Sequence to fold (609 residues):
Amino acid sequence: MCGIVGAISPNNVVPLLVEGLKRLEYRGYDSAGVAVLADDHIHRVRRVGRVVEMENAAIAEKLTGNIGIGHTRWATHGGVTEPNAHPHVSEDELAIVHNGIIENHEAQRQRLKALGYKFTSQTDTEVIAHLVHHYFKQHADLFKATQQAVRELTGAYAIAVISLKQPDTLICARVGCPLLIGLGEGENFIASDVSAVLSATRRVIFLEEGDVAEIKRDSIQIVDAIGAAVTRKVHVSDVSLASLELGPYNHFMQKEIHEQPKALSDTIEQVLDAGFRPELFGEDAEDVFAKVNAVQILACGTSFYAGSVARYWVEAISGLPCSVEVASEYRYRDAVANPNALIVTISQSGETLDTMEALKYAKSLGHDLTLSICNVQESAIPRASRLVFYTRAGAEIGVASTKAFTTQLIALFTLAVTLAKRTGRLKVEKEVEYIEALRHLPGSVQHALNLEPQIKSWAERFSNKEHALFLGRGVHYPIALEGALKLKEISYIHAEAYPAGELKHGPLALVDEKMPVVVIAPNDALLEKVKSNMQEVRARGGELFVFADLDSHFSESDGVHVIRTPRHVGVLSPVLHAIPVQMLAYHAALQKGTDVDKPRNLAKSVTVE
Ligand code: F6R
Fold:
């Protein structure tokens, strides 16, 4: 989704703005632009398409300046056109970039039109530009004008503003969308995501809800939502630049699939160090867990599937009832609140709007026991939660979530076992078994990655298919769902997943010799049932592609292809089986020639509804 970067410096800021925008490309966007102040003018370059096209135009126009703002836009209000691309300008004096959605933009537009402002775009953002300009005329102080303007906005925003009349000042503000200030020596920066400023600084201040900041080269002033001066903590980011580079890989998705042994062992390390102890989830966790009598998981997409695996674990291991719901549904229904339920939000980015709103809704219903499982330090959802478990996947750039998913599973498994300790359901020998299972998992995942050549040859057979079915049972059913999601989102092959037992209640009608059916079939308690379901497919001519483990004892036969993952890894088997379905989707997408890291119509962080 949209990205913001801004800088004020004694040096030319254009290279930094362009590099920052390139770092934000992974979030998904359709146009890009920058504006700088120089020679008493606003110089602006905007282009539909990739940042590099905008960069070439900026080079051709010899764009330079010591203060500037840049933006990657993912269209919401108005089509993908240059006039709708940011920055937007008011009266040739003031430029603004904006992430989020202004809900009362139509009323404000009418009001500003009546005041004589002319609109040149269809965006909600232009409203903010004119509104700030309107108050700037009255206050002659950009900081105050912005504070007054944002008070009249409803919706979500992160904005950055510069003006010719105050060329030593960069103003920014946020509600509902992330924004941070990067601290330099004699220069300062802003960005919606730390990756955009990492080449310049690691020292960052995360703005809080309602904050407005005035940034000069040597000073920063922040006021909160009611206008009171505040000091916000300085963090040193631990995101590494290497994690933002492709290195020897062709795609970030490929890199991130292969990083899983490390991402998993980094995440598991904290559990092995602490044991299944509440402190892993925050200082307050002991008290919170003592009150918990149920678990309610809220998340979207792949994170929702991680939650769906967790439902099996939480109920089986801790004995606590657990439900899991898509966040965008939960937030709009009259849910019955159990105040002793632990609300668990799962979000890689920590800024998915639907998940954030679901959390707020849960709190409004009286839920006070909240835990976030997240991969991005200090992002909005963990900040709004009482407890947090940070996965240590490292930056995930590919739109399709891979290493974030498998590390979320570790966090959720750890939660299930930790709750089991509290409920008194955890036997000592089981605890030892679980610790051993965690310890051995990264090695097994490494073995699963070695299956890539075989999976690639399967993928070649998928590239001319229009549809695919994924089947799984029990705790592996959500892995089938995840496999189908991965395949459809990056290869655009239509894929559906079913619990294998559901086949004959409808989807079996789809099966013929043209339908590839992927089955997740490890050696668990439901294996024999899965085998019967597979017979039903074969009897109708369907071609089976089976991911089994060494203990499942499958053999290949006509129309039945088998790839064996390492020995059955017991309770953590869903984590292991996520790997081959990720690789299948990746190679099918390569065969089809799609943009693997930036699939069409999708964005990495979904910060709008
Ligand atoms: C799919 C995918 C998405 C995200 C979903 C939630 O590969 O990545 O389905 O899982 O948009 O995102 P987060 O986890 O950031 O809340």
